[in-house]
Fold:
Amino acid sequence: MAGLKALERAAIVAVGSELLTPSKLDTNSLVITEELNRLGIDVVAKAISGDDRDELAAVVRGLLDRVDLLITSGGLGPTDDDVTREAVAGVVNRALVEDREITARIRARFIARGLPGPMPEINRRQAMVPAGARVIPNPNGSAPGLWIDEGDHVVLLLPGPPRELRPMLKELAAGWLKARAPGLAMVRRVVRVTGRIESHVDEALQPLYREWERADPKVAATILATFGSIELHLTVRAPSERAAAASLDAAVAAAAAVLGSHVYSTDGRSMEEVVGDLLVERGLHIAVAESCTGGLMASRLTDVPGSSRYFRYGVVVYANEAKTTLVGVPAALIGEHGAVSEPVAVAMAEGVRARSGADLGVGVTGIAGPTGGTTDKPVGTTAIAVATAGGTTVRTFRFHGERGLVKFQASQAALDLVRRLVSG
Amino acid sequence: MAGLKALERAAIVAVGSELLTPSKLDTNSLVITEELNRLGIDVVAKAISGDDRDELAAVVRGLLDRVDLLITSGGLGPTDDDVTREAVAGVVNRALVEDREITARIRARFIARGLPGPMPEINRRQAMVPAGARVIPNPNGSAPGLWIDEGDHVVLLLPGPPRELRPMLKELAAGWLKARAPGLAMVRRVVRVTGRIESHVDEALQPLYREWERADPKVAATILATFGSIELHLTVRAPSERAAAASLDAAVAAAAAVLGSHVYSTDGRSMEEVVGDLLVERGLHIAVAESCTGGLMASRLTDVPGSSRYFRYGVVVYANEAKTTLVGVPAALIGEHGAVSEPVAVAMAEGVRARSGADLGVGVTGIAGPTGGTTDKPVGTTAIAVATAGGTTVRTFRFHGERGLVKFQASQAALDLVRRLVSG
Structure:
């Protein structure tokens, strides 16, 4: 591909009428942007088109001249409203021709997956290819991706389902896209913080912002607040990935020094991964007794591959009776203090620890809402206890937001308490 | 405004360089779409531009001819990178003139809010108005909105912060926009299906698609495949909300008749809400024993407010020992058939039912991956059993995708099995 212009400016077009409704967002473009930026390719525009050939063609036509690389996601399915192939072929003036290898592959896929009946005839649409396009294999679905060279420009058609798009994108980033990338690397790092509010984090970082602004290469910082976590996104563009990474390492270390133990991750790991790694490192087992989080803490812990190495078991003891039967919380204790109280959280943590034989027992009890709150204990009130051989720690929190958010924040605070205790 | 063309087709442009990074999504367009659809105005395209005057001008120019109404959000702030006014004024060929009333209002706002010092000179930018534009007051911020009539077209500039944009939009929807609305209502309904793949659902619906295409009012249909669920989105535009709803009721009923018991929701409810409502209706309690889903099924069940009415308890019995201790699965049974097997799923379901005293017991055991698969039992193999007073039903599934997806699909299939058994 020597001699071809580097791909510096990209546009991303998400295709799908559902993305023009009030309930769906295009999230594929975030993943695509991340991969492109890593290669030093800038995303200068994004667009969303419905499943309408003419509309999509107009969008593609409007963007194509302004960028080096235009990526579409979606609209490669087998049905009538999958129009991306047709729309793009029209814009770049190519005929659509059936690629029999693709047809054969789709047919084989139907047989291999034991799907009932033969391949529906409509799937043949997925084998239609604009003349001259390069086919990008799709190991996770029936529609292949397509790479079209149009003069110095590239149009790249990717499937919409994330589990098909992501691996295909990784392959391209390591191969065809990398070969056309400009010589600049853009690297991002995320510092994850919990237990602090956004404006405090922002204030603490002010002196660093000024330093990063003057640095060479410059470190760009953005703060993003999500429930239960604040993310500091740091970005550096440098002539090499190594140079960018070195500059980021220093910036991450400086931020971590300012924010202290509130930082739980600087390398992309989630809270449950950080906790899992700590437990493996120390050779510890954990067991959890959950009331208001309803299984979410166990589910997050077991989201991590290999979690059977440290996850002993979990109980979801929503009802008071279950708290007594499964982890031995005395009914009298619940009667005296209420189910949402520090003594009950402690009894849950100690009970599940004793019964499971795990090194750590966690008890979470709270009011997820929307009902069940009182003046004393409003919705969001949550008691969290962690029992270890050395004793039991208990804290009461008050979380805000709707039911799902209270559940998530409670699970986050419980995992964070485990993290702090285990890392000492 | 008599005589002016109704606004039927709209495009929404979000302005802001942060919306072109891998971590930010344009969510303003969802709110805008909802308001427009309610007025019968269709959103046919969305776009996102960075804070660059020329880029934004190109986006606006490309969209303006294709729609009746173009709405921008963002880029009306006081700083140099707030370029929406300049970009749009350029496209519609108007001079920017200072509106002294706006300047006075911003100045008063600074004083009223007790902000330190006088109004910074840069805020004067916010008083610049394309000649002939109508000014939309902003009670929640300093930048007013702008309404520009350009022939039959309208360009509407709204501020980016949601707390400024939303009230302004409400005002417009009740006033200026309503006056130009097409007098049509647009209503949406979603039919949710599980246990079928997209192309089979699509094929089964072909005759209906043709019927809907010819119907008056026309029913627009889009299929959306997500893991564990396929969504059929139906949209109708009709002279009144009532007429649209009646036509949708008929369409939903026709789709449900074709797809049969695979349809689990036609009114927006999630699978866990449907199952919860069924359990309440029949006065039944449920308890779950989860291995591969790791608490996700309990967490989904307890995501529903009021789930304490039917959720007895859950155990997350990842380890074999836990299966024996907590739900009485005989170790010999695990030895003979393996932990992922129908006999073990049955023993888990019956064990948790017996111990909890619930009417229904669910057992889920599978290989979530990425490791742990064998030739006989590849990753994704999952046995699901539901025990009731009438006996126990067990099924084996093979799910595809990464760990999180296998977990979700397994929880979905288990909830669906409960749904089918309870609804009889």
Chain A touches chain B through 91 residues (CB under 8 Å). Chain A is about 40% helix and 25% strand. The first strand of chain A starts at residue 9 and ends at 15.
